[in-house]
Specification:
Helix content of chain A: 40-55%
Radius of gyration of chain A: 23 Å
Strand order of the largest sheet of chain A: 8-6-4-3-2-1-10-9
Order of helices and strands of chain A: EHHEHHEHEEHEEHEHHEHEHHHHH
Oligomer: homotetramer
Chain lengths: 380, 380, 380, 380
């Protein structure tokens, strides 16, 4: 199956503002973005409510915007991979949306999310994402984290009931991030989000939407995090981009840094048969004008496809396969004990565990990893 | 209740070796450590199997060592807060213990853990910790993370069955760490471990043992992480020390860096009524000789007690309490919706959500946080 | 001498915009900021050209603005600690100012700096700061770093000549930063800037303006960096704030994180007799409204003064002084050889260097550091 | 000219010890390392005094070791790229060597360095490296950084005089590192070291030896740092390896992470005509046995050569060259003003600086960077 590529309207439409400078590009008309992305070979788009229908738009105008946008989708054949609520841009949400200390803000946030879910459902979005960018604090004294998690859970529970009651097909995906724009954000990593999901009233409806940049900011292995999400059956969506560890949120073009890491992510998605969108949540560099936007979008897809092709070669390369075997990679799939029983334990404890002998085996990781480098560099 | 302070035998006994230099101190006799810690006011100790009974010790010698050690515990009244298995020091475990690619190593690891659990139970340890320091990789190609999690789960499941079968009272606590000594370690954060626990066959028996240094290495908020563990009822043990973000594992004296963060951790433990040991998993600086070991141990406890006293003052300070109220900290404990119902949703959607008006409230976090600084500096 | 506290107009005037959300506060009138800062006890202010006179202002209007502002300074007695050029906000500087690949942009940047220097001189600024926030790149391919340094040097050389020709008293201070808003910024640390200064045509006129947040982002020791600047006689200005390692530029209230580090910075400035302004280049949290701005400003000064008082106690505390002596801190000021001579070398080589014996001394750093913690916590 | 590859004896000879576990390999005989490296195509080796002649070896034994080692060099034709002193391994240096608070330790360190310089000169080393791994502190209170820099400078000054007096041809290269094994190390970055060199009595004799891992730990751009060193004429040696940001010192095989960064470093070295050794200061993974050592060594050289070949293709690729021109990369080499003169300033100030117009140019960095990715992936 061909990978389905999607881009957020806010990604190609990003005007290039940053904390130290104003916008460098005009905002794009979402309909133009749809057409151009179709032309470049994308499968679909994703959006926040406000990307298409700014807060405060009248109902009449909303309907016009929606009709025109749906026409563009129909015309181009583009789908909607996911929709989400902007609960971070308006100053009302400065101290959180679902976890604002102000109950009235929390109620407004849930209301905005419901209306945005309606919009997402109307557009046929597959997944509905929650990125709690403002759910955090700079001053630990200002929120008890246990209360914050209670409120976060309450909001997701109410909204999942709402989806079911409305008869929508949507599944939810929670997007973790460790910090920025808040000093510390609740549900900072894939792991925290996966655990949180297990505490919800409808856990089966909720998965994660991990993002390369967000895990990488904290120096965590993205491929291990995505692996844990897949292992749990919880990879409902994914945000692809690039990022250096320990920096501001960079949202670089997919593959722009961390090529080997990007390769293993692509390989894992392809191996695991992940069927969701390959969603690029990245931004054209601020130094670009409109030409650069499309250089950027094309580059994201080009690199993904090149790495997917290399993943196929990896599987077909006899030397690589032999090296995997010598490193005993397949043996990790074999049970160690195969379930507890008194006999199994007795058998295990009766064995000689000659650690000194076991220590002599070399793991040949250097060789195997160099074969990957060779593959990436086009040397095999 | 007085906090119960414990120290690992390997902490005060650390000889000061590091990756670039040899030991600077003689190893301590565990019995001497017990006596000295008792003298300084600690409640107890913790240990790896090998700290007390080195690998390869004969059974006869093991019994002698154990008898002498138990006598020292009895003599001093010290307890055993936790026990754990050294599955990282021997070169056999260089590529993992429960997740080694080599099945024979995995079986040896489970066997070593069983024998070490016997030892922990014999000493009356409250908690049995699993720190999977070698469960990871430097080369992502060398392990499928999904297989690794399968094997990790299998091992914990087998060992929890073993504990139940043996009739031990032990609870398990998993200790996450993002990296070092491996390039990337599985179960890198509190969140990943909490999620993993939910997938086990005996989840009720297993909690987490978070460590300041481990979460802080990745720049994650330790107080938020501990908060999530408490929220989940899973804080079974805790490792206190100090660490700068983005560095090698420093294991500094508790409070040596990050005083404000340390204060909120102490406050959270005290507020939550956490009853487990306050365990210092830290190391005297390598520049110290034996005198410095006890400076270090006394300092850990001294700073904890000072911060706990400040936590009490925090609660008693009317200006701080007024500032908490103005910042609406207590309001975060109040339900936002109070459970889904069509009426509740209708009521919420019928409300005016005047974001502009909601945005005007100032959160006074600067003032509240400055009050904390004043409290810490002894100015109030 | 009382420390002279200054605040940037852009700091108290920061409207609370960030990469994910719009402003949360109205901009302040610079004249109001001057009055309020005077009331709170600040010595003075600092400014970018555009903070006071926005780009594109007519000359006539500029004169009106300047007259009104100078009147406010006179009325309140506030001084101007430093002035600087905004060479990062306008999209023309998106790819750098002095190191833009576009020569016309570089010339515009130098022109803007000259006019801004005129403005700074007219206001009596002591120091003129260069923060090259856009002098960098996200894509290493886009600039040869050697060319970039040539252009950077050329710009500073031309501008220092300009100052001398105009007869201004200004000294320059270069402000390093490792990244953000660019992926990598040239002159990323105090060290790189100090080296660069040595290559200028008027090195004596140029020093550094280090900032807590900027060095800390990269995990570098701010006190060591400031120490190297003082050692070189090059600390011409300083930006005080707070920051966690490995994160987006946080610009927190001075002392809000890293209390012990803040203490050593204050102590070093006071010990070294640094006479320049203590400049707070920080931002009130975005969750604040105007009340919070002044909480923030007052807190910066309050914490500085509290730490300066603790530095005095440090010097007066006999136990601390004895501990310093035992740790041989003063002995580090004693020459090791005292200058090369054949005799000195012969004497040194003739000595027994009994490393084993030298290794036995304990450095008692744990005790000394705990005394500092006690001092900070108000326990001594 | 073919690049000259060198390896430290301590790199291939690394036995695999780390802070949490014992060695996994036998130490190699230096003579065997020499032979094997020659076989793999290396140009030469480098060494610490203790790598070859352990501390405490008698003079007679030293002569035997040296004779045998020189014979191996002669037999194989291998050269000695650099030599250095081990001033970090022995516990006597636990609190620093040249900056120990203990003057007797400082004198011992200078003495050890002199004897080690003799050894390096005897072996014909081109460069003599100083890595001050222990020159730092975990407790800022324990050393005044200004005193530490005085002592550091004194030591280098005395040793450079010693070299001149002895008539050796050696040049010195200072190797910066931000932290590990000390909490904070003096001269933490290339920039700090370059500045320090300018304060020495024989600055012309001293350059830098930057290491990928050391700058990368702090998240600094290695290619920019090396660029500043080349710009200053101070790149006397270089340490190539790989490292993730914000972690313990990993010393991975060159290219193992950060392929694009590695490419730009290789390209810069090749473009700049750097003639020194390409020195791999890396370690085989601890999971390897001896086979893995040579996989590792071969991989370092293989990746360097592959990237150098890609650098040649980069120069020969017309589309890349056209993209460089459109991005105006060559224009950065053109002077902006061309030297100060009143006329030049008048001309500049007389220009219209239409920032709005200048802002419209797109920099096409996305396209240029994607061409680099394509080149790396073997797609062009």
């Amino acid at each position: 199956m061909e990978p389905r590529f999607t881009f957020g309207l806010w990604t190609v439409g990003n005007p290039g503002r940053d904390p130290f400078g104003g916008p460098t590009r005009e905002p794009l008309d979402p309909v133009d973005s749809v057409r151009k992305l179709a032309e470049l070979g994308a499968w679909g788009i994703s959006l926040h409510d406000d990307d298409l229908v700014p807060w405060g738009t009248s109902l009449a105008e909303r309907d016009l915007i929606m009709a025109r946008f749906k026409a563009a989708l129909e015309e181009t054949g583009l789908g909607v991979g996911m929709a989400t609520t902007n609960l971070f841009g308006h100053p009302a949400f400065k101290d959180g949306a679902f976890t604002s200390n102000d109950r009235a803000v929390r109620r407004a946030a849930i209301g905005k999310a419901m209306r945005s879910i309606d919009l997402g459902a109307e557009l046929g979005a597959e997944v509905y994402v929650f990125w709690g960018g403002r759910e955090g604090t700079e001053a630990a004294v200002a929120k008890d984290p246990r209360d914050a998690l209670d409120r976060y859970r309450e909001a997701i529970d109410v909204l999942s009931d709402y989806v079911v009651e409305q008869g929508y097909e949507l599944r939810f995906a929670i997007e973790p991030k460790p910090n920025e724009p808040r000093g510390d954000i609740f549900l900072p990593t894939i792991g925290h989000a996966l655990h949180f999901i297990g505490t919800l009233s409808r856990p089966e409806m909720v998965g994660v939407n991990p993002e390369v940049a967000h895990e990488t900011m904290a120096g965590l292995s993205f491929v291990h995090g995505v692996g844990q999400a897949l292992w749990a059956g919880k990879l409902f969506h994914i945000d692809l981009n690039a990022q250096r560890i320990g920096r501001y949120d960079q949202d670089f073009r997919f593959g722009a840094v961390g090529l080997k890491d990007a390769f293993f992510v692509v390989k894992l998605l392809e191996d695991a048969g992940y069927e969701g969108p390959r969603h690029f949540d990245a931004r054209p560099l601020r130094v670009e004008n409109e030409d650069g936007i499309w250089d950027f979008a094309a580059g994201c897809m080009r690199t993904y496809l090149a790495l997917a092709e290399k993943a196929r070669r990896f599987d077909a390369d006899p030397e690589i396969q032999a090296a995997l075997a010598e490193t005993k990679v397949p043996e990790l799939a074999r049970p160690t004990v195969g379930g507890y029983s008194p006999e199994a334990v007795d058998a295990l404890l009766a064995e000689q565990h000659d650690l000194a002998a076991l220590a002599t085996r070399g793991c040949r990781n250097e060789r195997l990893d160099q074969l990957v480098i060779d593959l990436l560099l086009g040397l095999r």
